[in-house]
Amino acid sequence: MNKESTYNSILEDILNCTKCALCRSKTHYVPGDGPLDSRVAFIGEGPGREEDAVGHPFVGAAGRLLTELLKEIDMQRDEVFIGNIVKCRPPNNRTPLPEEVDACLPYLFAQISVIDPEVIVLLGNTPISALLSPQYKVSAIHGRIFEKEGFKFFVTFHPAAALYHGEYKELLRKDFLKLKEILNATKNSIGGF
């Protein structure tokens, strides 16, 4: 099976999932968007109201800020994978419950194994807890890179946090500049693309 057909099989599984109660309250599944050869994968917490309405991640105000931040580091949204820990909107945008995260994580792991990004950017505490450690908090470790199970994880704030807490916006911008440096170093170390 080639990369595209493998990924399409994962998408089909996501779009038919009934592993937790979120599937009953959602409008659309939000599996994630982006090319299968993305150098970078951005992972948030879960779909919000606008994402649930259209079936695509990061389309609201936080998504617009993410797109702006990408442009500031000379990247386009359509060159990166963007997804979430859970694929269905939690009611009232609450934090996903542990059993909801556990139900969805195998899908994200499957997606990441196909895409094989150089860097996985964790946007906020929920992805940090699910993919690195529940002991870490974004405020203490943002702007840092971690290696775990063969993957490089870069940690920063969720763009929504910067919308609610203005002081995070500049920290987010600085973190994105660090991300650009990391990607440039990776690109240069393997001879460029």
Please report which band the strand proportion falls in: under 5%, 5-15%, 15-25%, 25-35%, 35-45% or over 45%: 5-15%
- N-to-C SSE string, H for helix and E for strand: HHEHHEHEHHEEHH
Reported for the largest beta sheet, the result is: 5 strands, mixed
Going by helix content, strand content and strand pairing, the class is alpha/beta
Mean of the pLDDT scores? 94
Query: What is the number of helical segments per DSSP (H or I, 4+ residues)?
Result: 9
What ranges have pLDDT less than 50 throughout 5 or more consecutive residues? none
Based on the structure, what is the oligomeric state of the protein chains?
A: single chain
Tally of strands: 5
Which strand order spans the largest sheet, edge to edge or round the barrel? 2-1-3-5-4
Task: Walk me through the structure.
The chain contains nine helices and five strands, in the order ααβααβαβααββαα. With 193 residues, it is α/β, with parallel strands linked by helices. Helix 1 runs antiparallel to helix 5. The longest helix is centred in the last third of the chain and has 23 residues, at 167-189.
Question: Topology of this structure?
Answer:
Layout lengths: L2 H13 L6 H4 L14 E5 L4 H6 L6 H12 L8 E4 L13 H18 L3 E5 L1 H7 L6 H4 L3 E4 L2 E6 L2 H6 L2 H23 L4
Parallel strand pairs: 1-2, 1-3, 3-5
Antiparallel strand pairs: 4-5
Helix pairs in contact: 1-5
Features of the shown structure:
193 residues; alpha/beta; five-stranded mixed β-sheet; 9 helices; globular
Summary of the model, kept short:
Helices cover 48% and strands 12% of the residues.
